[in-house]
Amino acid sequence: MRNVPFVAVEGPIGVGKTSLAAAIAKQFHYHLVKEIVEENPFLGKFYENMEEWSFQTEMFFLCHRYKQLEEIQHRFLQQKVPVVADYHMMKNLIFAKKTLKDHHYQKYAKIYDILIDGLPQPNIIIYLHASLDTLLARIQKRGRDFEKNIDPLYLQQLCTDYEEIFSLFEREHPHIPVLRFNGDQLDFVQRKEDLHYILERINHVIKGALS
């Protein structure tokens, strides 16, 4: 499975992960895996009261992403079917560490380590980032009811957390390519030339990393 492309698209809320993952799947004929968001019954309550609902919210996401990784492993990668996902499992720890109380996080981290043991990890990662203004504008444009109560300070700190975790990841895993794209400069949804540029870079890295 090592030479089968498994691409993960990551970045903070509203940066365009699902849109880019769908474009990659269409361009390269990969199987698209999308994270479950709106189906999480705790998410609306979480944005209203993070302290009360953070543990339930994060456990729901963790369990569903674990099941998706199992499916990726057994139904696709073992059959040599390339996959692109609009998330990386590391996001679980980013959000959990930010929202959970320490005693809850310690339990969560132990469960996380148990679940991901032996499961496939992406061999190419795309990291999308953008300014707070860009993220807020895109969140407002897509109009999800449960996101209307997002605190801009929470979102800004989330961007900082993503930068820190990806800088650490790149140092600890230099063999895994990480492509960074700035969402303030590139609008791959509205501008075809931007999408073409991104897809060309991805194609180049895929060929180089897995050849």
From TrEMBL:
Start and end residues of each Deoxynucleoside kinase domain: 8-207
A molecular function GO annotation: ATP binding
Record EC number: 2.7.1.113
Binding site for ATP: 11-19, 138-142, 186-188
Active-site positions on this chain: D86 (proton acceptor)
CDD domains named in the record: dNK
Gene3D superfamilies associated with the record: P-loop containing nucleotide triphosphate hydrolases
Pfam families documented for this protein: dNK (PF01712)
Keywords for the protein's UniProt record, in alphabetical order: ATP-binding, Kinase, Nucleotide-binding, Transferase
Any one Gene Ontology cellular component term annotated for this protein: cytoplasm
SUPFAM superfamilies on file: P-loop containing nucleoside triphosphate hydrolases
Family: Belongs to the DCK/DGK family.
Protein's UniProt name: Deoxyguanosine kinase
Naturally occurring in which organism (per UniProt): Saccharococcus thermophilus
